[in-house]
Amino acid sequence: MPFITTNKTMAVLSAIVVLLSATLFADEKHLSVYSPVAIYTVPVIDRAGREYIGLLELLEPLGRVSSESQGARWGLRYNALNAEFVAGRTRAKIHGRDFDLPAPFLVENARGLIPLNSLNEVLPRFIGTAVNFHESARRLFIGGVGTQVSFQLDTNEPPHLNLNFSAPVNPSISTEPGRLRMVFKRDPIVSPGSQSISFDNKVITQASYSENNGDAELDIAANEPLMASFSNTRKTIIVAPVQRATAPNGSAATSGNGEQNPSLMPPPANAAPTPRRTLVVVDPAHGGDERGAALTDAIPEKNVTLGFARLLRHELELRNFAVILLRDGDTTLTLDQRANAANVAQGGIYVSLHAVSQGTGAGVYAALLPVEGPSNGPFHTWNAAQAPVLAVSKIVSAAIVSEMQKREFPARASSASLRPLNNVLMPAVAVELAPGDNGAADLISANYQQRAASAIADGLASVRDRLGVQQ
Amino acid sequence: MIPRSLLIGVAVLLAVVVTMGVYLHHMRRQAGELASPAASALPVPPPATGPTETVTLYVADDGAGILRPRSTQIPLPGGRQQRAEELLRALLRIYQQPGSAHPLAAASDIRSIYLVDPGAAVIDLNAAFADQHRSGILSEQLTVNSLVETLAANVPGIQRVNILVEGKRRDTLAGHADLTDTFDVATIMQAENQ
User: Fold this and answer.
1) B interface mutation test: which of A332, A352, A371 has the most B CBs within 10 A?
2) Using one digit for the tens of pLDDT, what is the confidence trace for A148-200?
3) Residue A4: inside a domain, yes or no?
């Protein structure tokens, strides 16, 4: 077995502990960032009665970024732009110009922290585009990103409320007596204008919009239990009373135009939660010193895989999977460290994410195992650790391809001699995302990644019973 | 007064030093001229001699993500090893043509192929082959499969293949395809046919 130093092992174990902690404390304060390049969240921390945010973490998904700490001075390079901050001081220099922060700059463990309420002023100086920061809700919109919503109540029997969105959405939906609640954690939903709309209907009486801690929320009030279903490729949500939503023959609810809605809500994530959850180990390939393929002159593979992994995590969590990301920043991990971390986590499935600028759609790969040598009974060599579960890996691979093809996303299942797939003890697949019709620009498109992530998550959900479970 | 014999001795020694210096300079220039053609990145195709034979090359198509068998006639030398090298060079020439469905750099070449053991072959690629290869799971795997399947289809008895770069083991071809292990011909062919 390859040798790994104690320090490295400790680093990997620490990373796992941090990631597990992050999963456990998902309700901590965070900032949601919506940009054309990526949709992501960044933790918000309280210092001296103020909210602060890590500048490096904020800028990382938006471009090439690096930092340098020297004593109290903290330098940052974002693409070709330099900035300099001093710990404990409010005066900073961004791109050669002085700038005053509303509160002192902080440095903790080489991380540079800026006050949250400075984002409207600081961020445009780096990215060169206006931002719209909803400070009280901790939601940041970059470059005109935003999904509009409109309401259309059909009072004909059975009454139903159509929520029409300008882009596909994926909320978490829950119901309680007299109320249906939709929480949009990753969708850049913006206020419909009025915070509350009342309807002249005895059943569905009111819709209200609110924002809090990085999430947007739509609440529908009613005098009867409600349920929701998706339509129009997830751009429409139809809310209707439960007992009227099902036709006498038991078929699914229909939309206003009579279209069948195959996906009845609430989705699996909000169905009665199961006590056992399958743990998915998501591995954004490359990272740190290892940049992967150069997808364009400015975009290395490592950045795309990280953004894609964060989207996939969200999609999986919506489907009641527990998720660990092997890296959630620009860190270097060797292939053996990745395999070890995955094996220690004892997940139900390992998913390695890659990206490539040639081809179209996606390739989904199971391990192509090498020649193993003489049989050692139940024991396998490190490079053939995948052997006992390879058949399941191929089933998972086929399921993901099937879900992608349902979405008219070109995909193909195959085998590849790709480490660390063959070192992983659980079923393992690699997904290589290739561009769509818009070329390499698709690889950094949140919508394109969202489609692929959704298909992967649905694929895993469809074979959940074949995967191991985590108590 | 310095003895005359000593002056003559020093003068002779100085003359020898100067002559040696001039000769050394001349030799270094000559060595540089000899080394420059060898340092060229472009491979020099070996002379292919021997009777023309029909062979099957497994040619990668990146767009379709598959290998396509292609029958072609090439002159093959008699020796098993030279035959294997010429086969893969014929394959490379297809990839190096303009508009290839699986482009490889013009400087890519096969340094040598060793048939070291009954059933085992070692393909030694040059540095340009790996350094200038496009990075990606599909592209790299198709290259590996194409080399392995072409070799196995035309050189009877090959069951296992190792790939080296410049005579040394390399972790990956271009960041993805693992080259540290031995490829099993049957496993690759089975995976290709799925």
Assistant:
1) A371
2) 888 888 888 778 888 988 888 888 888 777 788 898 888 899 888 778 888 88
3) no
pTM above 0.90, yes or no: no
Shared domain check, A446 and A315 = yes
pLDDT in tens, B54-95: 999 999 999 888 899 999 999 888 788 888 999 999 999 999
In this complex, the residue of B135, B137, B188 whose CB is nearest that of residue A418 is B137
Same domain for A312 and A173: no
Cα gap B193→B188, rounded to integer Å: 9
Q: What is the pLDDT of residues A303-341, one digit of tens each?
A: 899 989 998 998 998 888 999 999 888 888 899 889 988
| 3-class DSSP string for A195-214 | CEEECCCCCEEEEEEEEECC
- Nearest-angstrom CA–CA distance, A351 and A347: 10
Q: Is the peptide bond before A171 cis (omega within 30 degrees of 0)?
A: no
Query: How many whole angstroms separate alpha carbon A102 and alpha carbon A115?
Result: 7
Q: Does B180 touch chain A (CB under 8 A)?
A: yes
> Is B138 in Cβ contact with A371 (below 8 Å)?
no
In angstroms, rounded to a whole number, what is the distance separating the alpha carbons of residues A41 and B123?
Answer: 48
Which of A212, A239, A270 terminates a domain? The answer is: A270
Q: pLDDT class for A108, splitting at 50, 70, 90?
A: confident
Of A412, A417, A419, the CB nearest to B183: A417
- Kindly state whether residues A138 and A169 are assigned to the same domain: no
Interchain proximity A432–B194, CB inside 8 Å: no
Q: How much is the ipTM here?
A: 0.72
Asked if A414 and B191 come within 8 Å (Cβ–Cβ), the reply is yes
pLDDT at residue A461, as a whole number? 92
Tokens of B143: 């290259």
